[in-house]
């Protein structure tokens, strides 16, 4: 399994570059293959995760976590700690080469048959070879994505998995950043169309990073269209600004490209909103721009989920302890105030 440190390490190198854009926020085409019918045309996004009566958590929305290790036992332990089972398990494939991405055998071996909804982060191209977004946009990797569809179908996981394809594309820290929005959209369409030939029940979550982007300021320019998307997602951590006051929280909620902005966008496109990554962020990567061990932030996020439960596809706390982030609330003793508030609220 890919370490979350490797997944996020680029934030360390981009923090100084991103800071000017985020500070201002704190005040707030290639053709694509369309041969297969998109899941968005045959399935309502309301069926992406458990229906109300079937939610393992017992909450009025689907709630989950990312936690290091990647096994059901570790996710179950988090649920036991908080007092409600997790509905959703967020995880990532390794992504240095194609085989790691299109045949994530550890995921199939570990999670097949598990009742928890799997949310799998997969990039459109590997990070460790010469694959390019330009080639993806022209369909060069269609056969690889068709094979991914066959693999996940064979594992029996196609109807219980959400794919976060090319997450946080509006940032500048990933190889698939949408500096060319038309190219990103075309690539996305090729991936979805190819994978769904064998696995039409897969769900696709188009996830941005909260705030004005660095690769593309307005991430809506990289939206591939309703036919190819089932969920609109936003990753939203307690930083830029840290929500240590009502005014700072209002910025996260109502600021430019904030939580309400993306909720409104999702509704306008007939989709539900996900928050696949959220959490306190007292680590070194965002020093001086986060809220620390922030119980107030936890309360406000819980309130956001409750108030918008019928329009929330799912949310997942990012329970990582690595020093760059240091936002864990379970298992490492890092944020006792946030942990106590989360446990009581969830």
Main β sheet profile: 8 strands, parallel, barrel
Oligomeric grouping of the chains: single chain
The first-to-last residue Cα distance is 27 Å
Given as residue ranges, the uncertain stretches (5+ residues, pLDDT < 50) are 1-47
Q: Class in CATH?
A: Alpha Beta
Structure description:
36% of the residues lie in helices and 14% in strands. It is α/β, with parallel strands linked by helices. It has one domain: Glycosidases (TIM Barrel). The chain has an 8-stranded parallel barrel with strand order 1-2-3-4-5-6-7-8. Strand 4, helix 9 (181-195) and strand 5 (203-209) form a beta-alpha-beta unit. Helix 8 (142-154) packs across helix 9 (181-195) and helix 12 (295-307) packs parallel to helix 13.
Q: Summed up, what is this model?
A:
The protein has helices spanning 4-8, 10-26, 39-42, 72-82, 98-102, 105-111, 133-137, 142-154, 181-195, 246-254, 259-268, 295-307, 336-345, and strands spanning 63-66, 88-92, 117-122, 161-165, 203-209, 231-237, 272-279, 312-318. The protein is of the alpha/beta class and 346 residues long.
């Amino acid at each position: 399994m890919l370490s979350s440190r490797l997944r996020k390490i680029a934030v360390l190198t981009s923090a100084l570059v991103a800071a000017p854009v985020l500070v201002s926020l704190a005040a707030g085409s290639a053709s694509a293959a369309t041969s297969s019918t998109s899941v968005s045309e045959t399935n309502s996004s309301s069926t992406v995760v458990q229906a109300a009566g079937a939610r393992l958590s017992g909450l009025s929305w689907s709630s989950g976590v990312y936690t290091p290790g990647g096994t059901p036992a570790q996710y179950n332990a988090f649920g036991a700690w908080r007092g409600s089972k997790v509905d959703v398990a967020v995880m990532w494939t390794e992504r240095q080469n194609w085989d790691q991405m299109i045949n994530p055998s550890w995921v199939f071996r570990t999670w097949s048959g598990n009742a928890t909804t799997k949310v799998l982060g997969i990039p459109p191209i590997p990070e460790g070879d010469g694959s390019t977004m330009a080639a993806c946009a022209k369909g060069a990797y269609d056969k690889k994505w068709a094979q991914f569809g066959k693999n996940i179908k064979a594992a029996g996981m196609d109807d219980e998995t959400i794919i976060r394809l090319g997450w946080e594309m509006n940032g500048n820290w990933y190889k698939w950043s949408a500096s060319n929005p038309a190219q990103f959209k075309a690539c996305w369409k090729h991936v979805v169309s190819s994978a769904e030939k064998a696995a039409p029940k897969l769900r696709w979550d188009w996830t941005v990073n909260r705030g004005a982007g660095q690769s593309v300021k307005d991430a809506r320019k990289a939206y591939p269209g309703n036919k190819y998307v089932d969920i609109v997602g936003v990753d939203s951590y307690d930083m830029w600004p840290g929500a240590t006051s009502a005014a700072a929280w209002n910025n996260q909620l109502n600021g430019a490209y904030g939580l309400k902005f993306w909720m409104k966008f999702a509704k306008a496109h007939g989709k539900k909103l996900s928050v696949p990554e959220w959490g306190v962020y007292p680590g070194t990567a965002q020093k001086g721009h986060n809220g620390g061990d922030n119980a107030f932030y936890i309360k406000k996020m819980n309130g956001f989920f409750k108030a918008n439960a019928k329009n929330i596809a799912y949310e997942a706390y990012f329970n990582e302890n690595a020093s760059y982030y240091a936002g864990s609330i379970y298992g490492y003793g890092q944020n006792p105030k946030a942990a106590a508030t989360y446990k009581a609220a969830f």
